[in-house]
Amino acid sequence: MIAAGEVVEGPSSVVKELLENALDSGATEIGIQIFESGMKKILVRDNGSGIHPDDVKLAVCEHATSKIETVYDIESVSSYGFRGEALSSICSVSDMTVLSRPNEIQIGKKLECHHEKIYESDFAGPAGTTVIVQNLFYNIPARKKFLKSLKTEMKNIRDVVLNSAIVNFNVEFSLDCDDKKVFHFGKAKDLNERICQIYGEDFFNNVQFELLEDLKVTISGYLSKPDFEKTSKSHQILFVNGRHIEYKFLSFILSKAYEAVIPKGKYPVAIIFITIDPSLTDVNVHPAKREVRLFDQKYIDSMIFQIAAKVLNKTHIIDNKHFTSASGNFENNIDVKEDTLDVKFNFDYDEYRPSVVADSRQDFDYGSHKIIGSVLGQYIIVEKDNELYFIDFHAAHEREIYDRLIASDNKPNTQELLFPAMVKLSVAEYNCVIDNIMLFKDLGFDIDEFSDNTIIIRSVPELKAGFDHEKFMKEAIDELSQRDEVKNPIHSVAAVIACHSARRAGDVLSKEEMGLLARNVFNDNADMRCPHGRPFVHKISKSSLENIFKRKL
Ligand code: ADP
Ligand code: MG
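^ thats the input. predicted complex w/ magnesium ion below
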């Protein structure tokens, strides 16, 4: 009754189905072994309920399932599998062996399906089930051709196991690849512990757990604190009722929510769990069950946006007024067109960007600002035209240096080092510097090759005292070697120089220095973001203070 379609897309979908069966069987320990990205062999072993010896053969038959009794049960399915389709589909495109024994039965069954012939024998091994899949797609060579690279397949397998390990934190998981351990997580006592096991403590400390609830839906998750960003979207994961879902608008919604704090090209972390009454979702949309149709997508989108806004409001108040108004209006204004990636939100996002970005384009009278001083070791406070401005001085200084470095009409002043600096590098790093020697020259560095993967830095651009050449070099090389095509290499290295030579949090600035920085900030054309894209000015208007103190009616 269900138009089932193909389940077996590739090795990772095999792993996913076998894992789900193991979890459905109540296993508390699952071991996965992969050989040649699964093309040679996939083995999944569990300590779950096992299959009764009389049923093993049936289990690999088409549409055999023990998980629903009538078609009406489909409405409320809570197990992963329910279509009785996985084992038979996998079996039809590979050589499959199933070894299974329920705990209470002495002799279980071994079933070998080899080139469409089935061999049965007794099995007296450990209780639980082991499924071994070999020679995947041996009989459909065309399918093999369409597979992604082995590396991509292995990454997909890893993700499948990790996603499953997140939700099933009380289950022990191990993954081995070509006899090498990829990971092993013992049973965790809660989700926090599992997140730590998988991503490490540093990650855990940089995300915030939040929960939002209403009548229809519960949404919870771990989301980036403002400065915690990743270079890819791979840490944006959505689960609906314990199932990992690929939801194409997730990253878009998150990028909107984090727009003011995370620069373009970087992505916030968001591991999100949505719980919904299963009868309000439809898990049969995608044959491999990766997409779920939600009863009210706009509503879910607004929940995702709101949980992100809640994290940001708690951890970093950029502009309270704007954030609350944006999320408050979200539900009415969001307009996500289905089936197209070209989504547009109706409301004006400039509304909740720090408003000073827009204001800076107005004419400023340079003389009119008054430096109040620096606070908290990081910010300069300036009063101007009935407004207070907080300026993050490290970032503002970074911007100033960066703009100066990349100005095309500007040959940097260089200074010769009294003691040339020698920096020892790895072969790859050394080659990277040699390849980019002209680029460094344009930025004011005079670098020579020295023997044995060592470079010698003779001159540097005029920078602050105490500039750490070695640290700078390593970071610059890092930028240059991981840079994607779109980024301008000079700009990337200039950003590293700026970061290394700008005033740091905790530095004591003179009044003149603060005045110069402020003057630059209020300059007509200044960009109010640091080279990495973070805003560095925050404005509080007199009228918003009056609101806070209830001076206004
Ligand atoms: P489904 O999971 O949709 O029921 P499958 O083809 O994946 O269909 O599995 C068919 C049946 O085989 C299951 O309903 C279950 O009874 C049995 N089975 C498969 N794998 C296991 C396992 N690891 N442990 C116990 N039973 C299993
Ligand atoms: Mg199944």
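The first helix runs from residue 11 to 24.
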